[in-house]
Amino acid sequence: MAQTVTPILSVLPTRGLVDEKFKVALENLPPRFPVTLHSLHQSEDKDYWEAFGYYVSDDRGRVTVSQDASLGGTYTGAEPMGLLWSMRPVPGSRTGLRLRKMDVQSPMVVLISAYKGHVFEGFREQPPMASAVTERWYMAPGVQRIDIRERGVKGTIFIPQGPGPFPGVLDMWGGGGGLVEYRSALLASHGFVSMALDYLSFETFKTHNECLSYFEKVFSIIQQHPQVIKDRVGICGLSLGATVTLTMAAYCKSISPRCCVCISGSHVFPSGVSFAEVFQFKEMDMGKARLDEQKRVIWRDMILPIPTDPQRKVAMGRIKCPLLLVNGDDDQNWATVESAEDMAKMMRAAGNDHLLTTLTYHDAGHLIEPPYTPHFRASNFIVQHSKQKVVMLWGGQTKPHADAQEDSWEKILAFLRQHLYPCPSSSLPQAKL
Amino acid sequence: METNLWRLLLSVQPSRGLVDEKFSVRVQNAPPAHPLTMHALLHSEDGDTWEAFGHYVTDSGGDVNVSEDPSLGGTYDGVEPMGLLWSLRPAPGSRPGLRFRKRDAQTPMQVRLSVYQGHQSEGFMDRAVLASVMVERWYMAPGVRRVNITEGGVTGTLFLPPGPGPFPGLMDLWGGGGGLVEYRPALLASHGFASLALDYLKQADVKNEYFEDAYRVLQQHPQVCKNRIGLVGLSFGSSVALKMSVYSNVIQPRCIVCVSGSHIQHVGGTLADIFADIAKNQKKTRYNEENQVIWRDLLLPVPTDLSKKVDVSQEQCPLLLVVGEDDQNWPVPESADDMREMMEGAGNSHLLTVLSYPRAGHLIEPPYSPHCRESDRKTKPAIFIALWGGEVAPHSRAQEDAWRKTLDFLRENLYCSAD
């Protein structure tokens, strides 16, 4: 036999949702034995991502990742999920990578391994002592995925299991474009009909009204769906999607979202006076874009100072539903914290600030995603209108950003449940955020 | 309260689990002190429907937590986190004598968990459901590999855990029902053991050498530690395991697990001889009031003649016996007592551990499988309903406890013990 020490490595659950915690444990090691726990994932783009932590077994020869402190590696301290959120591209990878799952019908497969000693490189060149495979799913079993191609709208609807009808959430992604489904799939796994929308392929918006009527149409598609409770539809937006969310809530006459979530967003129109121009990124004051010492693009100053001209921003006094803002104070892409302060000011003046809740996470960046997905401070980005390839600085430090993702997701789900799931009695205490 | 004024939230975690993993089932957002029925539905590969249900009342927050709250009635009662699985039984109107066994170990069992208004006991298919989720239960963990074995005349399936190996090995010997039963070795591989399911009842005259060939195939596999191999048997497979471990020079397991087994058998002959011997005692077959067959007396009384039972006093490795005290199929408790006596007399009883479960029957399977008290056995010329014994709740507790202790025993002897 090749080795006399065969530790037993377990990961439970073996197949989990991406926002479920797992328990990684090693047994049958000698006591006080140094080991490295390592995670490896190959993305859909074929890049390899890894994370690792250094441990020493206890007197019974065990390592329990949820309790023991990692002494070094890509994360330190007692971090049950560190092997996922601290992943980064393996040495020698292409630069500026971002990990995103585009096919949500298959799981992320992660290989967890235990190596002898404290290893910091060359994981692929030496055999581990033990390995286990775990799957991380965006879709719970039985969730349905349906393509939407109607009336000029391109999107995907995810429907939870069960008889329905269900509350609905319109999911507005950011300025990167494309049809990004994973957050919608996960929302459906939590009991919401959710629609992901590709809204940046449309170059045909010429007027403000054309824009509004497109979004009214989109909202009505989800609201009229037979599996959706008509008066319980909310909107969730990230980045540019958050600006769209606020615009819809404030200006679209025929729709009334029951609540809105805006992640890393602003009420300021980046370009000028026209909402339509938001999508064209025309006349955007690119002069205010900065480069850092590594030539990464910083856009946060482009809407600073926050304009006083009310025409340059969404009229927050018109918002009639509960609004949750989620921001990172190290956001280098958009001045979201300053925007949130201005939104509060406007709503106080209008008398509707009781609707507003703001969560600000210290040292978190712009891309606040579902939990345990890796953080990257910058990544490759194609600017929509010019097709220019840049490296965009998003901001954030890994550990605080990971904590922000975990905490905010829990609060976003609680907020959506509170406002969208009809409660048996309004006299019952509501779930507190 | 009108159900259209509130929507309940049903969540199960994990939604995709191994069959021996516990899950947590929660209902939220219902009115307080509200009666609800939790229901489970499973369609077998043969198209039969199995169901289980429990009656609950929500707490003051409008919640039910199946892991902590008692079921007030149904197919199980009391606080039973996994009752919705182990108390599954054929739906009313099903054909008699059904047994739940998954033939395809590579796909999950799909159980639909639903919530109904009030306390319902029947007619579930005709009632409106308040909420429903699909839960998957897997025998194979991700990364476990399934390999067909056809070398050296041996037919079987090998399940390998993920990772570099090499791994301790197990030869899994199923019972007299025959065929290639894969789900238990698939689950054992999910716990780190390279496990070989052996097809050995294809012909009645299978020779002892067949088992030695199979053992060698396992030993020689590049991903198996050749001196860390154990035997796991169920029912007749246990008899084979005991005989081989004592009398074969090739089969030298590091430990043996015998579930519902007996050492009573014609020692010198082939399996065909053993069956012929048993058949001689046909007249000892008994029937209960439902005309179900009780075969346990065919091997009794326990012989004193050493040509008629395995001489376990010569056993050289740790032996774990799992006994259901209400076993109606084989005289397992009597055999265990006799084995203990033989080993105490020879001074090797320190190798023996007996797990004995009151009111458990013969078919002690991985946990949370539906209990089977009787099922059809196709023996020529007729189909009988064989009585296995056991009562649902005690048998299910036995399965859970025995499985955990079996895994601990295997780890202790195959992973942890010094070379």
From TrEMBL, chain B:
Matching entries from Pfam families are given as:
BAAT_C, Bile_Hydr_Trans
Q: Where is the BAAT/Acyl-CoA thioester hydrolase C-terminal domain?
A: 208-415
Which gene carries the instructions for this protein?
Answer: LOC115361132
Q: Which PANTHER family match?
A: ACYL-COA THIOESTERASE 17-RELATED (PTHR10824:SF36), ACYL-COENZYME A THIOESTERASE-RELATED (PTHR10824)
This protein's source sits in the domain of life called Eukaryota
Q: Gene3D superfamilies attached here? A: Acyl-CoA thioester hydrolase/BAAT N-terminal domain, alpha/beta hydrolase
> Which residues are annotated as active site?
235, 327, 362
Q: What is this protein called?
A: Acyl-CoA thioesterase 19
- What taxonomic ancestry is recorded? Eukaryota, Metazoa, Chordata, Craniata, Vertebrata
Family that this chain belongs to: Belongs to the C/M/P thioester hydrolase family.
GO MF terms held by the record: fatty acyl-CoA hydrolase activity
Question: What is the organism field in this record?
Answer: Myripristis murdjan
Q: Which GO terms describe its biological process?
A: acyl-CoA metabolic process; fatty acid metabolic process
Q: Which ranges carry the Acyl-CoA thioester hydrolase/bile acid-CoA amino acid N-acetyltransferase domain?
A: 20-151
